[in-house]
Write a structure and sequence with these properties.
The chain is mainly alpha-helical. Helix content is 43%, strand content 4%. Strand 1 (97-98) and strand 2 (104-105) form a beta hairpin.
């Protein structure tokens, strides 16, 4: 008999060499774009020089973040959110229920009479 609520097994993680190769490729592409920005500083006129300089300064910051961004497909999904029902805990302490008017309701009775 199969369990209808069983989750599928998570996919196998990428090999370390494949992961390093992918990160290096992403970082190298970003650094190539940065070098193009430096060359364009010499070629483009006016305020475009400032745009290329800002891009050349900011690209390394983002290149590291993009290269270190892990593949989300290989990770298992987060645990499901709990349902809206109450969380029930077993306890030896007495239960005290207070209604919206501030009256105490015994755990044995459902209403409080005054």
């Amino acid at each position: 008999m199969t369990d209808q609520f069983a989750a599928p097994p998570p996919p196998a993680p990428k090999a370390r060499s494949e992961d390093v190769s992918h990160r290096l490729r992403i970082y190298s592409i970003n650094m190539a774009i940065r070098m193009i920005c430096f060359v364009l500083i010499l070629i483009v006129p006016g305020w475009w020089k400032l745009v290329m300089l800002v891009a050349a300064v900011l690209i390394p910051l983002f290149a590291v973040m993009f290269a270190n961004d892990q593949d989300r497909e290989g990770q298992s999904s987060p645990p499901p959110e709990p349902s809206g029902g109450p969380l029930l805990l077993e306890s030896s302490a007495p239960v005290v229920i207070i209604d919206s008017d501030g009256r105490i309701i015994d755990e044995d009775s459902t209403t409080s009479e005054e």
